[in-house]
From TrEMBL, chain A:
Ranges of residues in domain D-isomer specific 2-hydroxyacid dehydrogenase NAD-binding: 109-281
Keyword rRNA processing: no
Protein family: Belongs to the D-isomer specific 2-hydroxyacid dehydrogenase family.
GO molecular function, one term: NAD binding
Pfam families tied to this protein: 2-Hacid_dh (PF00389), 2-Hacid_dh_C (PF02826)
Enzyme Commission number: 1.1.1.79
InterPro entries assigned to the protein according to its UniProt record, in alphabetical order: D-isomer_2-hydroxyacid_DH, D-isomer_2_OHA_DH_cat_dom, D-isomer_DH_CS1, D-isomer_DH_NAD-bd, NAD(P)-bd_dom_sf
Single Gene Ontology BP annotation: photorespiration
Protein's recorded name: glyoxylate reductase (NADP(+))
Residues in D-isomer specific 2-hydroxyacid dehydrogenase catalytic domain copies: 9-310
Keyword Oxidoreductase: yes
Protein source organism: Arachis hypogaea (Peanut)
Length: 313, 333
């Protein structure tokens, strides 16, 4: 398989890059100028693209690769990939569901606790020597609170399961009510936000869910409400979020994703009721390795004519 | 300071002498709320100097029958000798290592604690700290706030929590709440306690070293006493290993702190999340620049929600004592 040309368009675990290099004829096209050079010389030979949350093939790139057969994404979210174009062209698409579900759910609970109990702020308090001047102030209890989950898919359900251990009440909004679910369903995001203490965004990013967290939802969540975003930055109207936090219309936020990563609105840096993470939802050694193996196994299956392990298209 | 103190104690003679006096030591966090809610029931005496310097003012002290204290004030035998009429000590903490329980017992002084009031709060914090140190949450937050705009997000990977083996040291009320939460993460719960608990199905380890050897992380939830001082020592930390983590929401002296610092500096242990320290509020300066530690100022119990409940419990215990009824949360030893 060493002669099969593969184009890498997003940042991935070094182990994955090394393996791709070993097994295929790998071209790196993460950087735009790098990509342009590769396309100029090798567009006609590329049969696979490896994408990630930081970069995926849009319609233009897919058009530019006439021999493209498969896009394998090192992520569960595929908002960077033009799925419609892939369908039209008969290009297969795989992602990495399930292997990162637990990881993201763990971090979600960690984010909730970090915001409500001000763990990062407390850590800053100690490191700056302020503890010698007096105790830190009272924080907000998590146990027993009402958790609202936007998108009760794999990740949403895993978050709910963990929150139950804290005696939380769980409610959710989804495109369709899930008849088997024991949790309370709300038919709109605003109603969900009005009825929960902590709102977790756990749905895929599509044209319908773009800015699904808007001013109305944020106001409904309110001055004691907390927003946790472990989905995609574009789920949230970021300028609205920032102004709500600055004005006290929203109680707090835990954000692992942003609209224009790695850019983070600077106004958030001075706030003690926010926790800001550099998109690390799945960032453990164990999970990133499992994701990498899934990318490699999907590619291998495809080129050997076997069924794909985790196809989306 | 002494002037204010005299004024405060003198007020006692002229106002509401009917109200029972309660001496408050150690500036408990709930004091403001306590005064707001219960000043119509109790006369709170709050010294703003150390108790020793009150010695000349024996009249008010000799009639004190109830004391409220925080975890940071030691109720030692000498302190107890200054209070000859004392019948009740109410501590606002779950821990009682700061109280000479033997001396209280000899003197017939009852002791009441916070019981299980904080168990949820402390368990929540323990889980939050565990996730933080293993997934580098606080370090990542610092990273985002301080890296320059142009930099890429190259941040070191953390360690998975789900499915890991968590060794709980001390399976009391707090330990059980920690276990219940981590079970929902698919973790395997193991424990060490003074005695095996027959009603519990988690695997029991008589030796903390053996527990550490088979765990990915240790969560310390036990009381501090002579047997548990430095229960996490050099051997235990070596058994836990280079990818092992410790969370301490018990008392600082459960861990040999000097050894912990050394091991963290040498990479002999993966990381530590500490809410308590051997000499609070002093924290070993070597820890202040480490990214694989999380440091919080002994606040695992303190949420707004629990403060009112704590005040109710404190007041309830005092009222029970005054009416010769059983205490709500009597500490027995």
């Amino acid at each position: 398989m060493g002669s099969i040309s593969v184009l890498l368009v997003g940042k991935v675990l070094p182990y994955l890059e090394q393996e791709l290099d070993k097994r295929y004829n790998l071209f790196r096209g993460i950087d735009p100028s790098q990509r342009a050079a590769v396309l100029r010389d090798h567009a006609a030979s590329i049969r696979a693209v490896v994408a990630s949350s930081s970069g995926g093939p849009d319609a233009a790139l897919i058009e530019a690769l006439p021999k493209l057969e498969i896009v394998s994404s090192f992520s569960v979210g595929v908002d960077r990939i033009d799925l419609q174009k892939c369908k039209e062209k008969g290009v297969r698409v795989t992602n990495t569901p399930d292997v990162l579900t637990d990881e993201v759910a763990d971090l979600t609970i960690g984010l909730i606790l970090a915001v409500l109990r001000r763990i990062c702020e407390c850590d800053r308090y100690v490191r700056s020597g302020n503890w010698k001047k007096g105790d830190y102030k009272l924080t907000t209890k998590f146990s027993g609170k009402t958790l609202g989950i936007l998108g009760l898919g794999r990740i949403g359900a895993a978050v709910a399961k963990r929150a139950e251990g804290f005696d939380c009440s769980i409610c959710y909004y989804s495109r369709n009510e899930k008849p088997d679910s024991k949790y309370k369903y709300y038919p709109s995001v605003v109603e969900l936000a009005s009825n929960c203490d902590v709102l977790v965004v756990a749905c895929p990013l599509t044209s319908e869910t773009h800015h699904i967290i808007n001013r109305e939802v944020i106001n409904a969540l309110g001055p004691k409400g907390v927003l946790i975003n472990i989905g995609r930055g574009k789920h949230v109207d970021e300028p609205e979020l920032v102004s709500a936090l600055l004005e006290g219309r929203l109680g707090g936020a835990g954000l692992d994703v942003f609209e224009k990563e790695p850019h983070v609105p600077e106004e958030l840096f001075g706030l003690e009721n926010v926790v800001l993470l550099p998109h690390v939802g799945s960032a453990t050694v164990e999970t990133r390795t499992a994701m990498a193996d899934l990318v490699l196994d999907n590619l291998e299956a495809h080129f050997l004519g076997k069924p794909l392990l985790t196809p989306l298209v | 300071m002494a002037e204010e103190e005299k004024v405060e104690l003198q007020q006692l003679k002229h106002e509401n002498q009917d109200l029972p006096q309660v001496l408050v030591l150690g500036s408990p966090t709930c004091l403001q709320t306590l005064k707001q809610l219960y000043s119509h029931k109790f006369r709170f005496l709050i010294p703003n100097t150390s108790l020793d310097s009150l010695y000349p003012l024996t009249a008010p002290l000799s009639s004190i029958s109830a004391v409220i204290c925080s975890a940071s004030f030691s109720i030692t035998a000498p302190v107890l000798r200054l209070l000859p009429s004392l019948r009740l000590v109410v501590t606002t903490s779950a821990g009682t290592d700061h109280i000479d329980l033997n001396e209280c017992g000899c003197r017939g002084i009852q002791v009441a604690g916070a019981g299980k009031l904080f168990s949820d709060e402390v368990a929540d914090m323990a889980v939050g700290l565990l996730i933080d140190v293993m997934r580098r949450v606080s370090a990542a937050d610092r990273f985002v706030r301080t890296i320059c705009e142009a930099a890429t997000w190259d941040f070191p990977l953390g360690y998975k929590i789900s499915g890991k083996r968590i060794g709980i040291v001390g399976l009391g009320s707090i330990g059980m709440e920690v276990a219940k939460r981590l079970e929902c993460f698919g973790c395997t719960i193991l424990y060490h306690s003074k005695h095996k608990k027959s009603a519990v199905s988690y695997p029991f380890y008589n030796s903390v070293i053996d527990l550490a050897a088979t765990s990915n992380a240790l969560v310390l939830c036990c009381a501090l006493n002579e047997e548990t001082r430095h229960i996490v020592n050099r051997e235990v930390m070596l058994a836990l290993g280079k990818e092992g983590f410790i969370v301490n929401v018990g008392r600082g002296s459960l861990i040999d702190e000097k050894q912990l610092v050394k091991f963290l500096m040498d990479g002999e242990i993966g990381g530590a999340a500490l809410d308590v320290f051997e000499d609070e509020p002093n924290v070993p300066k070597e820890l202040l620049s480490m990214d694989n530690v999380v440091l919080t100022p002994h606040c695992a119990a303190f949420t707004s929600e629990c403060i009112i409940k704590l005040c109710e419990l404190v007041a309830g215990n005092i009222e029970a004592s005054l009416s010769d009824k059983p205490l709500i949360t009597q500490v027995k030893w």
